[in-house]
Amino acid sequence: MSLFFQVILDGLWAGLLYGLIAAGLSLIWGVMDVLNFAHGDFLMVGMYVSFFLGFLFKADPLVSWVASGIFLFLFGMLTYKLVISRILGKAMAPLLATFGLSMMVKNLVLNRFSPNFRILESTILEGRSFMVGDVIVPLPQFVTSLFALAVLGLLYWMLTRTRFGWAVQATALDGEAARLMGVNTEKIFLLVFGIGGACVGIAGGLLPSYLATHPDVGTLFSLIAFMIVAMGGFGSVPGALVAAVMVGLIESLAGFYIGPVYKYIAVFGIYLVVILIRPKGLFGW
Amino acid sequence: MSGEILLEVKDIRCGYDGVPVIHGVSLEVRSGEIVAIIGANGAGKSTTMRTIAGLMHPLSGVIRFDGADITRTPAYSIVARGLAYVPEARRLFSKLSVRQNLEMGAFTVKDRGEIAARLDRAFQLFPVLKERAGQIAETMSGGEQQMCAIARGLMSNPKLIMLDELSLGLQPSIVEKVLETVVEIRNQGITVLLVEQLVQEALEISDRGYVIQTGAIVHQGTASELLASPEVRKAYMGM
Amino acid sequence: MSEMLQVRGVSMKFGALLANKDVSFDVEEGAIVGLIGPNGAGKTTLFNCVAGFYKPSAGSIRFRGEEIAGLPSYKVARKGLARTFQVVRPLKEMSVFENILVGAYLGHPDNKHARKVAEECLEICFLQEWRDWPAGDMTIGNKKRLEVARALATSPRMILLDEAVAGLTSTEVREMVEVIKRLKANGLTVLMVEHIMEAIMPIADKIVVLASGEKIAEGAPKDIVRDPKVITAYLGKKYAETMDKGAGA
Amino acid sequence: MDYKKLLSKFGWPLLLVALAALPLAGLVGPGFSSHVLITVLLTAAMAQAWNLIGGYGGQVSFGHSVFFGIGAYGAAFAVCVGKTSPWPGMIVGAVLAAVTAVIVSYPCFKLKGHYFAIATFAVVEIFNRVFMIWDWVGGAVGLDYTILEDGWRNFTWSVDKRGYYLGALVLFALVFTITRVIERSRFGYYLRAVREGQETAESLGVNSTGVKLTAMALSAFLAALCGAFFAQYNFRVDPPMVMSLDMSMKFVLVAILGGIGTFWGPLLGALVLIPLQEYSRAYLAKLGSGVDLIIFGLIIILMMVYQPGGILGILTGSRKRQARLRARLAAEGGAK
Amino acid sequence: QDKVIKIGTLFPMTGPVATAGQRCQAAVETIVDIINGVYPDLDLPIAKKAGLLDGYRIELVKADHQGKPDVAKSEAERLYGQEGVFAVIGSYNSSASKPASAVAERLQKIFMCGASSSAALTERDLKYFFRLAPTDRIEAIEFVHWFDELNKSKKAGIKTVGVIYENTEFGKHAADEAKAHAQKAGYKVVADVPFTVGATNLNSEIQKLKAANPDALFGAVLGADYSLMVRTMKQFKWKPKIAINFCSGYQDQKINEQLGKDGWGFMGSAGYTPEFGSRFMKGVAPVEAYFMKKVGVPFDSNSIQEAVAMYVLALAIEKAGTLDTEKVAEVLRTATFDSPLSMGGKVKFESPGGQNIMARSVISQLQDGAYKTVFPYEYKDAAPIYPIPKW
Ligand SMILES: Nc1ncnc2c1ncn2[C@@H]1O[C@H](COP(=O)(O)OP(=O)(O)OP(=O)(O)O)[C@@H](O)[C@H]1O
Ligand SMILES: Nc1ncnc2c1ncn2[C@@H]1O[C@H](COP(=O)(O)OP(=O)(O)OP(=O)(O)O)[C@@H](O)[C@H]1O
Ligand SMILES: [Mg+2]
Ligand SMILES: [Mg+2]
Considering only residues 88 to 127 of chain B, which have any Cβ-Cβ distance to chain C shorter than 8 Å? Predict the structure, then answer.
């Protein structure tokens, strides 16, 4: 029985991490209807920022997430300004453009920092864990999960309870009408891309405390994040959270009880089932 | 009747995708007036209004509002200056409730008390909206949506409100009511610029009117002059 | 005249909201029937039920004797029942002509024939000068005409017009009215929703009035405008007065 | 504009004749340029197959590598496991791909926009992972060709590439001719109508699900033939090679960069992208690892930003589009 | 005029295994530098004079297959065709080596394969294909032999084994060999755990192992996945008695530095370790110094095999005394080469097939931050630590 709980909890941690990564994607998708293909590479860049801060200045990921968050906030805004703002609303253009961006960023990092994977030694959290009964709770994952909940909570509050949030919603629904209400939609887009970047930046900042950093690290994460956003219903923070936890649990349960190679088959399969029953996602409009 | 000039449009030209559709439109609206723009389909009425509202910028020409040049001012700050635009096809926030739509109308206002007061006023004007306050805008019928759009425009407490195709899709009794509302709005001190296909009805409540044809003003005058003009009657009133 | 369309006891529910309540009426072959009623009365909903976009929660809809309630919309269209949309839906990236052509293919699978029919419909609806214009870039008024032209191109037995003249000037409305009359003369049955009385009253053989989802009146136009129920629910006093005057003159 | 009419009438057959004449002129042989030429034809055919449903039908599918892969596995399975000629495998593979396409797409067509796109991602991932563990078709190890005798029976040529060239040309001609016929037919108009508005199309008597499924099945069938060619050409299949998002992306990228929903777009896309990819990999690698891909990525971004209508847009409507762009900027200037 | 021998290199310079590819590339370059220059201090026949034969310089033409078989195939064609290279060295991934070497065979050109480990490569009876590294099979047999040895000498009590491997062509091959040979020797396979490369976590994989709790663990895990595996084991506080990884997945100076103590006690096969080199392969150190200058890390089992591939090819050209492919290939097929860079010092290819039948590998264990050889005993420089100390 404790094994079962162990498996469940492992899934939970994984799920919450996915939620943290998916949140920014969901926001950008929901507001601008842009699927950011480079999302995984944003994550990777965040990890590099955190890694180098740790490597060069001995900063712990528990601190450097702030820096990666800010870095990715700026990076997101820059991406918006230079690329997305020029092609917003043009069918597939943003998707392909971000695909190009992904290719560029990934190979730029590879070219500059070599393809080596890098690990931070002796971070504060690394290797620590505590027990709840027979169940092991690894500290890095636990802390990341807390961050995920905090960031998602903050995002939710911001979107539903603040003027900024209303403006974001209005912009998402009809940009032109929002402008007629006095919303500076361009600023909203810029900020949304920035915040989306910051969310994934925070995730990237924390990850080096237990995951190796390398140019390809974002690939699978971004795929899972795409799926979570679609499953939750785009633009919906609670949707992203629920879907993420579901994915984490399925992954863990299928991985353990059916077999590790089946875990993504199960995850993607169940995603398809969910989306076919609810074509706009669990919490979608 | 004729206060100082509130809105002045001087010889604007604009177009879509490089194709010019407005070739030099000039008009003015004095505060306290109701001014109607009439014209056939595709004459450029909506384009003119969109340009004034800042959704697009003219290739040449000048637009002044309330003493300031707003030719290149972005739409969102034009609202703040007191010029509201109710676009054709309503453009409600489809997934938000009626109440949320109305609240968005007062986005430039930060004081919650003030917003509540304006909301009350809107509900008085359109009691249906009060009943439906919680309904999601896109599930309302066309007419209900139109009312919501007008009410939303008024939420910003504008000095001038531009109404595009006010009566489109409204039932006769409501058209009547809406037109009465326009007069009422004016009586409350809000200047009105409207585009309307029900030419007769529109001119009956207006002070002055402009007739626009393929992107240029071809007639202008007081409402009664236009109503009496045989050309206008023939071209736009089917008589 | 036989019945083209029989609507019997149709109800349509959206969650708790009953948009149509037990609505019944007939449309005779070759007639023009007007469907009016306050905003939100359920006219479009009823259209959607007839055209197969919604499956009514209860009731039966017979088209030329055949039950069509719940049939998918393309099958309804193939039976000869065409519709326009109140909120226009042009095929945006296609030209006006191509929009109509798509409709024309329904009755005329071969290319030549279909093109000929499409050209005709283009003309009927005064759209020649917009022939190669991208349909999405036109004004509302033109898009409304396109809706009609496209529906006509399917060579239907019956056409459902949902506010086809809204947004047109009175002069243009009159042109459209002429078009509709011509359609009728060619044997087409018309069921139209309209808020512009000058468009509907002169040509309708019969008017059905819906309010809050229920049928509150049915009859000849001249009777309907005098019906106090309709006046309070829909027309408004002032309108009734002018209508009276107009009818009297 | 007369030359345009001529081009649209005779351009396609003339091009085919010209391409068919190339080997006679001795321009196709064992060299790298022949490889590039073959790859251009193959990629153009792939992109055009995708374009049928993705461009004309508006269903932007990232799942085409599944069909491509099934075709590739069909041929490879016949050769490596069945020890026969690849031909029966190709046909069976293509039919299976079409059937798979129908089964998978039927539910997915309920989804709109990015929801559809992501569902197709998931389909690719599932197929990829199933094939990775399915030992009957080689699993992660894949299927490897032994060295076969050259010729049409085995559809392999070891040195001279003329056979492959002709094969690719036939494939290319097949896909493009089918597209041309469809484009001007009732079905083509229906397909575009469904793209522009499903409900509208239905109101005009179009069975939109049927139209989409037919187009998808045809598209998958043709994509599978391309996949079979790819397997024959590379003497190997494994899931990451033929059934992956990378491969799916190639379909989409070429079609969109060339000009989505247009007849010439896929060819133009392949004509520009493939030589760029092959030669930059060959000659930019000296500058350091990944430089070619950095430049490739940059080009995609620039292309999308300045010419979202694709390369075809540059050729046909650059001036008109420039004007459009300016007006649009003016229109959206409200936000600046 | 210019006397140049063009040699192609075909490695994954980008993509998920680019690190390894770039090191292999650097290893070949190191040997080429030595061939082209004069290095009197090196005790290699090719170092003393500049170039090969009567003054032919070697020029490398680099190509990147990105880890993709189709790209490997067309790049091989380009190298042989367009670039006119004499031979190609490559391609690290077995899945890329297969189609690339098939091209060579069709063109009757030499293909030197350093590190690819799939046994299937040399079971194709090719005539122009020569592979230096030991295969998965050789390594698997050695692993099992090592267990037998431990059971006998240390009463280790190894009865059950588990396998964890990346679900790729490499991992699958290796795991199949491991399972087959373990079963043949009477060990019971209690856990068979493939995983997706680039996994976001390995929780369920390690949980599964922990639940089956095998005495010994075979791994075919590379790079970032390897470090994730070790860290996840630590997290779940589980270790087998002995863990042994294929193909030097764990043998990377970077892993050693970054995993720190967590990595200690794990074992793996190695075609080379710096410690081993400094004790048994005197010729390597100076060459390795040049290599270190390029990439900052010493040779590992993969990169050194690519260096040997280049080196042996050079010897064969010298010996044939001509640039006639047929003659050089014949030398490769028949001769036995002295290779100071190879464990055991000799290289000899089986013909047909092309497997280096002298290929050896040792089992090393990470002890106190160094890769110590523990088996076979004749090479051992440290006693094995068995079982691995618990977390
Ligand atoms: N988005 C657009 N792209 C290109 N041309 C457009 C666009 N919108 C409108 N036009 C063109 O601009 C001209 C003027 O249109 P406008 O909408 O201003 O007319 P209108 O007078 O408001 O007509 P209506 O009464 O039908 O609304 C028309 O010829 C129309 O075709
Ligand atoms: N999809 C839906 N979900 C929920 N409610 C709906 C939906 N569609 C329509 N309604 C509601 O049903 C009622 C009838 O709507 P309908 O559109 O049929 O009215 P209508 O008679 O066509 O009005 P109008 O003349 O304004 O077009 C309205 O109150 C509307 O809010
Ligand atoms: Mg208008
Ligand atoms: Mg309606």
Answer: 88-89
